[in-house]
Design a protein that fits this description.
single chain; D-amino Acid Aminotransferase, Chain A, domain 1; 7-stranded antiparallel beta sheet; binds 4'-deoxy-4'-aminopyridoxal-5'-phosphate
Amino acid sequence: MSNPDHAWLDGLVKWEDATCHVSSLAFKYGAAVFEGVRAYWDAERGVLNIWQLNEHLKRLEFSQRFMRYERIITADECREAILALLKANGFRANVHITVTAFLSGPGQPFVCGPVSLAVTAMARGDYATDGLDVQVSSWRRTPDSSLPQRVKANGNYLNGRVAAVQAKTDGYDTALMLTQSGKVSEGPAMCFFMVRDGVAITADKTSDILESITRSTVITLLEEQGIPVEERPIDRSELAAADEAFFCGTAWEIAPVRSIDRLVLPAGSPGPVTSLLMERFSALTMAADDAHPEWRTPVELS
Ligand code: PMP
């Protein structure tokens, strides 16, 4: 697939000019925070719907605040940049957007500016899967007391990466990570749910997870369907009691799990609750169902 014409780097630029210096703190020390956002093309209405934009931009402000950036790039600034970029590229397809607030100058690791905003948007399809074979990783999640997963910092992704690479090397599709105390945490870029006796269970927000927007969406959708949800610590052994399981996240949407440590989930992949959710989620993102308009930001392309 060819690159789009434009990117955003503190202004609209040609794709090939969206570069960052090798002396920057972002490059040298990973001093960057970001959001991955999706926009879904509604061909019937000729509208690109950005999914959960406000929630993503709120989290980006939080991540910058945690990093003590000397200037916070606000949600309004980011929104303007994203809209300008989508219009400049004139996408008529589903799009994946990355919004990064990063330290663009050189300096010592404790320096907190200058801050730059980079946005890229690329047409991208689904991560469709009929079931993931998951390895419970021997690599543990970095704890809140070291580098909090609540902050969507680029550096955090090295932790998920070692687990994902290990899983692939060992013949699995992806990893499920545990906290330092051995409770279930999350996947490398997605949150985890299991269904046990009709109850959906997911790790609570203090289990070293990213406070995932899709996780919140899923909780709302499950509750609307009358399916009880428990947010609580999950023992590793409880995974063996799951009837079905799935991962969720902006990129992965709702991804069914086939097996965990080669133990195949008895209700199938996708199981009935996962199937229901996948259908609901897709109807809402594609705007086939008009419910929850607050989750969609429509962009009219001229
Ligand atoms: N956990 C991690 C570590 C992630 O990177 C992501 C992707 N952003 C998620 C969970 C899912 O979060 P969200 O639903 O907000 O995309």
